[in-house]
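Recap from last week: sequence in, structure out.
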Amino acid sequence: MTLSSTHADPTPDLDAERAETVILGAGQTGLATAHHLRLAGRTCVVLEEHARVGDQWRARYDSLLLNTPAKYDSLPGMPFPAPRQSYPTGAQMADYLESYVDRFGIDVRTRAHVTSVDRLDDGRYLVTTTGSTYLADNVVVATGGEHHPRVPELAHRLDPGIRQLHSHDYRNPDQLLPGPVLVVGSSQSGADLALEIREAGRETWLSGTVPGEVPVRMDSLAGRVVFPVVWFMWNHVLTTKTPVGRKAQPRVRHGGAPLVRVKRADLDAAGVHRTDSRTEGVVDGLPQLADGQVLEVANVVWCTGFRQEFGFIHPTVTGPDGWPTDEGGIVPDSPGLYFVGLLFQRGFYSMLIGGAGRDAAYIAGHVAARARAAATV
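Predicted structure tokens:
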């Protein structure tokens, strides 16, 4: 998303298009919210920065697979068109989102780069893009969390001859220079890429503590028995309504989700040099681990996550940690402003494709109730 570098107090734009609700982002949560608004008899416009719906998935690494089997990857009203126990690819997910828009006639405006969202004195919102403006009673921010790659400061001190890529820009091993590879970050993307790079014949290091793993394979017989229990836990136990869920929320937000498809045993069997030591320093231009090892590598792939960026919203709605000051996606200090798709927004399920509909229904219900209340005034 393109953000404006300066900001002045807005004035209502007489030429702005009126919309009851503007949704920012045509990913799974934005589209699910649009669908639930439609079911509630409300209208909305969805703004998508890419040229095609689903392009955010098409731009990921070539071998990307979803973390859950297809039977758990459906949005409300439309089953995912793949074998139930298979793991869909990123490209399949992209095409599914595009088909979802067509099936339900969702009003998506592509190539819409939002530069600011301003709350006006009358309580409405002025949404400004590079090509148009919208005047809305409600705004739902569904921009996702993978816009702004996070790379540690030490990256700038590595030898310039080392090729560095963030997972956001990695596509396949052909991008790498000949020689050993260090993958930094042991969450799902780190495990995925370390395994792929090792299987391409490169000596590969994976640095960082693995944030746990689901103990069975979801496509195995045991997985088919166990995963419904795991799914129940993710949806009803690990939520912000339970003590264990509230304790888990910051760990998941800052430490990553457990491995689902690729396990530690897979990495070890492939010959990945897996270490819990973090990459914390630089010695003679080479990365140094916390245990003192200096790795002579030709490439570093940063799987270090992304930072939140909501500075385009005025007045600000974020706390000192950069996260919105929301309550389950509702912003108390800015009536009519909502979020969907935040990591662990209302539960572990909030991060999953199959969980998008639940948070979307909650937010759409709040929007619809607000519209009904306004109509009675």
